[in-house]
Write a structure and sequence with these properties.
By secondary structure, the protein is an all-beta fold. Helices cover 1% and strands 52% of the residues.
Amino acid sequence: MWKGIAVLAGTAGVIVLGILGLARITIPDDPSFSEGFTEASLGSDGVLDFVPTAIGGELEVTGAREGTLTLSRGFQGPGYGLGDDTGRIFFEADPLSIAQMYYGDLTFFTDPEDCMFTPGRLNEEIGVAAVALECVDLADIRDKGMVSVKGYAALPADMVVERDLPETGGTVTVGDEIWEIVDPVLIIGPAGPAIARESGEVGMLLQADVHTGSIFFALLDDQSLQARSVHYEDETGQTRTVELSPNVCSVATEDVAVINPQAEIVELTFDCAPVEVGGLGSVPIEGTVLFERIYYIEP
């Protein structure tokens, strides 16, 4: 089951080459307002009756300050931030809640039980889900007044709904050996703390869970992957590196599922002609692995 996200500023796991910081989602790059919000309503089944087309939303604020808070662009902060010039809301997942809210000169720190969320339809193609939310009598931290908030939003799907998505990982066969690969991740974006690097190249390292071997795939300009090198611990405990020529491996990828607008699951299959691997001799290398591809957007 997939549910819950972590903001890039936090750490949620180890990427490759000992680099920390796993991004499950990033702040969207100027999300467009989802079509259908003006006609959105709760149906007889208690579910919103429209499928969102983009991250966004519109909330009515009443009480000490009145107006409309439009979730039209992203904000960095303590959670997944959306808002406009009038205010900002920072969402958290698992459970879906509002960590902080700012509206005009008012500031609110909320608990999960302060707001009610009703999940809506899911757009699996873009990884976005609709939700109705209502918060009643939120008190400003400086006692300037109370407001209530009600409306609709479209958020990253893994914040809103649970889905049965395939687990990442797989196996790589190196001669007679089988390497189990766990939680592989490829991050696409500018250089940063979560980018895997080897010899100045950006890419993804498939690391065997027993740490005896790995294969590095370089990310090319066209966003395809190319098997670049094999690393193996020989019988003496020494790590050997075998550079792979560009044409020795056939590599293919296929999109499997969208987790959210900046993350998806991709299947990687590859087949390499026999190559000399220290301690193993000349052996073929092949594998099928599901990995998470994340599009990192510079804050």
